[in-house]
Each structure stands twice: as C-alpha cells, then as structure tokens.
Amino acid sequence: MTALSNGGEAANKWKDDDKLGNLDVGVFGSTRDAHEAMAAMNAFSLGWGKRSGQVTKDENVDDLGNEAWRLWVDGNGTQVTYHWRRGNLVLEAHVQCFGSCPGDVDNATRVWVAAIDAAAQASP
User: Fold this and answer.
1) Under 8 Å CB-to-CB from 8, ≥6 apart: which residues?
2) Which of 1, 42, 93, 118 maximizes the CB count within 10 A of its CB?
3) At 14, is the pLDDT very low, low, confident or very high (cuts 50, 70, 90)?
C-alpha cells in the first residue's frame, strides 16, 4: 500500500462516489506506548460513534495483528473502523459511506485492512 510509504497526506485517503476511506499509522517508542494509544483510540472512536450514530458492532478481531478491534456505526452513513497494532506500530483504517452503501462494505474494508496489514508486516 502506498499509504505505508512516504507518499504524504494524499497517500492515506481515497474517495469514490459513495464512500471515503482513511488510513492513519502511528509509530510509538515502545510496545507499551502503542498499547496505551490503542486503548485511547478505541475509547475516542467509540465515543465519537455513539455521538454520530448508532453503534452496531464494537468487537475484538482475532485474526489481525495485536489488540485488533472493529467498530461499525450506522446513522450518518455506515462507518466501519478497524484499529490494530503490530508491536509499536498502531494502525487505523476507516471507511464511511455517504451515498449508497454496498451491502458488503465491511468485507470490502476488511480486504483493504488485510492488504495494509500485509504491507505493515513486510516493512523493515
């Protein structure tokens, strides 16, 4: 994924006629710092989700990095957010539908997340 390279701000976003995607990556000084950041990110995202719509999924994800988590919010367009950690690397991938939302938006987001995670694992 170009978003994990030095592609600048434009490399971590995409948009089509119906949805917007955003990727954020943080590198922390230690695994402990990354773990603490994950807890804060999850709490912030959950709070924002409750304020902006109805949280329909708030769950751990077993087959993605460390401490992987998924949030699904309906309301002002369906939103799917994944947070996960690889050591001291913390990643967030977020997709929001603002037009017609495909029924498989979570599956499509998960494919994107898997590609991001593969690139993260391959990075030196």
Assistant:
1) none
2) 93
3) low
